[in-house]
Write a structure and sequence with these properties.
With about 190 residues, the protein is of the alpha+beta class. The protein has a single domain, classed as Gcn5-related N-acetyltransferase (GNAT) (Aminopeptidase, 3-Layer(aba) Sandwich), CATH 3.40.630. Helix content is about 20%, strand content about 30%. The protein contains four helices and nine strands, in the order E-E-E-H-H-E-E-E-H-E-H-E-E. It has a nine-stranded mixed sheet.
Length: about 190
C-alpha cells in the first residue's frame, strides 16, 4: 500500500490503493459528513454480538462529543467505508465514558491534557484491510502534535494487540457501555513524549 499525502489549506488527504481500488483518508472539518459517519456506525455494529438491538434500531449514532471532536474518514468512490474520531480534554472527567474507569488507576502514568480515540468503525465488507491502523496512526499523530500528553483508548478485545503495537498500555476492563451491554470494553493509554 503506497500512501500519497496531499495538503490543501483546509484539508489533509492521503490517497492509497489496495488491489485495483483507490481509497482516500481525509480529516474532515465539522460538520462535514457527520450524518454519514453516524449511519455507518449503526450499519457496521447493528449485527455485532453483545449490542443493544433497541439502540441500534436507530438510523444513526451521533452524540454531543461528535460536535467537539476531530473526525477522519476513509472513502471509496466517495462513500465512507471507515471513520474514527479524536477528542481533546483538559480534565479526565470530560473524556467520553470517563465514569466507567477509575481515574486514580492512570494517575501514576501522568496527567492531561488528554486525547481520546473513539468511535472507530469499518464497514463489514472492508474489514481486514488495515483501515483501523491507518485511522489510529492519523489520530495519534494529530494528538501528539496538538498538545496531548496522554491518549486514552477504550477498545474491544480484538483491537488490544494492534493498539499495543502502537505503544498503548493495557490497564484493564471498563464497565460495559449501555449501547453494547454484553460486549466487554477495555482501557488503554499511551503517553506522549514531547
Amino acid at each position: 500500500m503506497e500512501l500519497v499525502t496531499l495538503k490543501t489549506p483546509r484539508v489533509m488527504e492521503t490517497r492509497f490503493e489496495i488491489g485495483n481500488s483507490e481509497f482516500l483518508l481525509t480529516k474532515l472539518d465539522y460538520p462535514e459528513r457527520l450524518d454519514e459517519m453516524g449511519a455507518l456506525r449503526v450499519l457496521a455494529w447493528k449485527d455485532e454480538q453483545g449490542i443493544s438491538h433497541d439502540f441500534f434500531s436507530h438510523k444513526s449514532w451521533l452524540d454531543e462529543d461528535d460536535l467537539r471532536a476531530h473526525h477522519w474518514v476513509i472513502s471509496h468512490n466517495k462513500v465512507i467505508v471507515a471513520a474514527a474520531r479524536l477528542s481533546f480534554h483538559k480534565e479526565y472527567s470530560s473524556v467520553p465514558h470517563a465514569d466507567l474507569f477509575d481515574e486514580s488507576l492512570i494517575a501514576k502514568y501522568g496527567t492531561g491534557p488528554y486525547a481520546s480515540l473513539n468511535r472507530l468503525v469499518v464497514a463489514p465488507e472492508y474489514r481486514g484491510k488495515g483501515f483501523s491502523t491507518l485511522l489510529d496512526e492519523a489520530r495519534i499523530n494529530y494528538a501528539a502534535t496538538n498538545g496531548a500528553k496522554m491518549i486514552i483508548a477504550q477498545p474491544v478485545a480484538s483491537r488490544i494487540k494492534s493498539l499495543e503495537e502502537l505503544g498503548f498500555l493495557y490497564l484493564g476492563k471498563i464497565k460495559p457501555l449501555y449501547q453494547m451491554p454484553e460486549r466487554q470494553i477495555y482501557f488503554m493509554i499511551k503517553e506522549i513524549s514531547n
